[in-house]
Amino acid sequence: MRYQITGKHIDVGEALQTHVKTELGVALDKYSQRPTDANVIFSKSAHEFVCEVVVHLSTGLNASAKAHATEIYAAFDDCVEKMDKQLRRYKRRLKDHHRDRTEPVELLGASSYILASDVESDAEEPETLQPIIVAEMETSIPSLSVGEAVMQMELAGAPVLVFRNEKKDGLNVVYRREDGNIGWIDP
């Protein structure tokens, strides 16, 4: 497994890198047999250290966790504990997913845009109704079943996931509703 351990304005020493590889490796070996790479990012927010971990599994699914603590090792340990909990919750589905799916998840390329928010609260009329594009990025839309999409959304900690439905071959959306349930849009 490949590890990318970086720090934003923080020097990540050899001892911390060794700790990350050991502890994350132990946690991942329990639940997912085939992780391909892990990105670990340490940063500082005021007086706290922040640790973000994203693990890419060979099937195309991603698991992510984020934690804050006053010490850098404690932030990482809390983050690994969150990831461990997520993977434990989905262990059965992950193992069933490996048996059913022999090929990695197919990804469809798409463009992603960030639009400027309308910060003018005055009653002035805008010159045009076209939004201002702030940034343009490339993204991938996975080809998944509805159950896999819900699992991917939960593992990534995302509020919404756009995916291509394997059974109907159309674009679908799953999202977390305000009442805590999961919504599914199938046009």
UniProtKB/TrEMBL annotation:
This protein's name: Ribosome hibernation promoting factor
Organism, as annotated: Tropicibacter oceani
Subunit structure: Associates exclusively with 100S ribosomes, which are dimers of 70S ribosomes.
HAMAP family named in the record: HPF (MF_00839)
Pfam family, one: Ribosom_S30AE_C
TM annotation in the entry: none
Family (UniProt): Belongs to the HPF/YfiA ribosome-associated protein family. Long HPF subfamily.
Key words, A-Z: Cytoplasm, Translation regulation
Primary gene name: raiA
Primary location: cytoplasm
Function: Required for dimerization of active 70S ribosomes into 100S ribosomes in stationary phase; 100S ribosomes are translationally inactive and sometimes present during exponential growth.
The Sigma 54 modulation/S30EA ribosomal protein C-terminal domain, residue ranges: 130-183
Subcellular location: Cytoplasm
